[in-house]
Design goal:
By secondary structure, the chain is an alpha+beta fold. The chain has eleven helices and nine strands. The strands form two sheets. Strands 1, 2, 3, 4, 5, 6 and 7 form a seven-stranded mixed beta sheet that branches. A hairpin with a 2-residue loop joins strand 2 and strand 3. Helix 7 packs antiparallel against helix 10. It is globular, with a radius of gyration of 21 Å.
Length: 376
């Protein structure tokens, strides 16, 4: 098997590293923290100007038509530099909705997204409800069209988004549609993620919505978008974990005790070696997940669940180990490790932690076993 990075993907990664690195220095990130600036609009504009915001999107909607491994390279670079940007959510939505480009509402949104003029973000999370396909938010159709009632939590970048991609339940099952934020039926309340990403609690009260799909079509589309979010989130986690390990290697190579670098101590070396092996395991599963999503493989959900389940364990272990070998230095806010550990905790839990995805895998295996036994 050949795991080498193609030249095209290497060029994408090099470009993204150059763009993100210039806008994500520790000095700039500290300045943004002091000004309570949640994300860097100038960095997003650089993504738009360089074309990174349309990486892996189809040519028919103005994308570069590269495969999703190119997008994974961008996600990893974002993680390596802890750069807050709405890229992940915009590209996942644009990729998922590309099959609906003939619809006027979707066509206008895709044009605006690929031109970098607007932000669209998913509103799919409900506190206390782990079943993505069975939201408590309700969509009802009447003489005025579709209207939504309910609540969504942890909606990323909602304050700057023009439209929300919302899941709800209707008489046909799962419902998926677009909701404009600039209407009286949408109320937004600021929330803040562990790693500082701007998020919002959204309340819908008879909010007007444009229906994209319902029933099995909506379920398929929501799972497709969720799989892509999970796969690219795991790629982001690889970048975060590698950066933490690099910091630990540099620090232990310079920190001396008893006149020698602590990196030469067997306990330190073995612990960081375990981290390296864990990250390699995560990288292999993430490659598989990204490839299955890219190829629309029927087992993509299982691949993404396996990658995300391992992602939670790896991030927890690497964060703990790198903090340990740093001693008290790891929690100094003038030292970058604390920021990576915050990102690690967020990525460990966001879109479901290890236990959640292990349960998804168990349910899928049970369903397959019962199907095999009954011959259906």
């Amino acid at each position: 098997m050949d795991f080498s990075i193609p030249d095209t993907h290497h060029d994408v990664q090099t470009l993204c590293n150059r763009v993100v690195k210039d806008f994500s220095t520790q000095e700039r990130l500290r300045e943004m923290d002091s000004q309570s600036q949640a994300w860097d609009h100038a960095l997003w504009q650089q993504f738009v100007d360089s074309g990174l915001h349309v990486i892996s999107l189809p040519e028919s909607i103005g994308g570069s038509a590269l495969d999703l491994h190119a997008a994974a390279a961008v996600a990893q670079s974002i993680g390596e530099h802890t750069a807050h940007t709405p890229w992940l959510y915009c590209i996942a939505i644009a990729h998922g909705l590309s099959s609906f480009e003939q619809q006027d509402a979707v066509s206008d949104l895709l044009n605006a997204l690929t031109q970098g003029r607007v932000i669209c973000t998913p509103a799919m999370i409900e506190l206390g409800n782990d079943v993505l396909e069975a939201p408590a938010t309700r969509a009802e159709h009447n003489d005025n069209g579709w209207q939504l009632n309910g609540n969504k939590d942890c909606v990323p970048y909602a304050a700057d988004a023009e439209q929300l991609l919302v899941t709800a339940s209707c008489e046909h099952g799962l419902w998926l549609g677009l909701v404009r934020k600039d209407q009286a039926g949408v109320v937004e309340e600021d929330q803040l993620a562990t790693h500082g990403e701007p998020q919002s609690h959204i309340t819908f009260h008879n909010a007007h919505a444009a229906c994209l799909a319902y029933g099995e079509d909506a379920t398929h589309l929501v799972q497709q978008i969720n799989n892509l979010l999970l796969a690219l989130q795991c790629a982001t986690a690889i970048g975060v974990a590698k950066a933490m390990l690099d910091l630990a290697a540099q620090y232990t190579g310079q920190r001396k005790q008893f006149g020698v670098a602590i990196a030469t101590f067997q306990a330190v070396a073995h612990r960081l070696a375990d981290c390296y092996i864990a990250i390699e395991r995560l990288e292999i599963l993430t490659l598989k997940a990204v490839d299955d999503v890219d190829q629309k493989h029927p087992g993509a959900m299982l691949s993404c669940a396996m990658a995300k389940a391992l992602c939670g364990d790896v991030l927890h272990d690497v964060s703990q180990a790198t903090q340990h070998v740093h001693g008290g230095m790891g929690i100094d806010r003038d030292y970058p490790l604390f920021r990576y550990c915050q990102w690690a905790k967020h990525l460990e839990l966001h879109l479901g932690g290890t236990q959640h995805h292990l349960c998804r895998l168990a349910d899928a295996l049970e369903k397959q076993t019962l199907s095999d036994c009954t011959g259906s």
